[in-house]
Amino acid sequence: MVILPADCQRALISKMPENVQERKSKISASRKLMLKSLMVAKAKEELEQESLVKEEEKQKYLAEKAAPLNTTGLSLAQLQDLCRSLHAKIDVVDEERYDIEAKVMLNTREIKDLNIKVLDLRGKFKRPNLRRVRVSADAILRSLLGSKHKVSMDLRANLKSVKKDDTEKRPVEDSDWRKNVEAMSGMEGRKKMFDAAKGSAQ
Fold first, then answer.
1. Looking at the predicted structure, is the pLDDT value of residue 1 above 50?
2. pLDDT exceeds 60 at position 17
3. Which of 169, 167, 145, 140 is nearest to 155 (CA)?
């Protein structure tokens, strides 16, 4: 083991990358679990506060835009005028809502198209999650052809039947491999192998 002087050690440490210099201490599993639970509790608390703030903003907006109606002391004609003005406002709001929904649908469609283009440029195709469904051939033809489909497709009826006798007619060679080993062992077996090799070479 080589021991370097202190100034050399400092120079080496200063040249090392930061991620090597700062080694993280290992945290025990119980400490990790405690930290995770604290983070989840903090996130839950922030979500609740955010929902409360949104509700307050909603109430303020409604108080500004839709003030409470004061119908006491109004005549019949004034009430009718009030109803007409409310209906006109409702129509305007419905038109705005319809326009906004159309814009949102257009934007989602554009986002889908752009995602498909990005995937095509990357060369990767994201497979959709498909459910496995058992459908018979008759059901497929019925869905494709509708009421025109009347012929039932029994695919098993068209299969050729094979008799077991045909497969049993073939002779099966039941040779014992030990006989062949005993015949080829020793000098006689080597001579047979040599003669066979010589005959095939000629």
1. no
2. no
3. 140
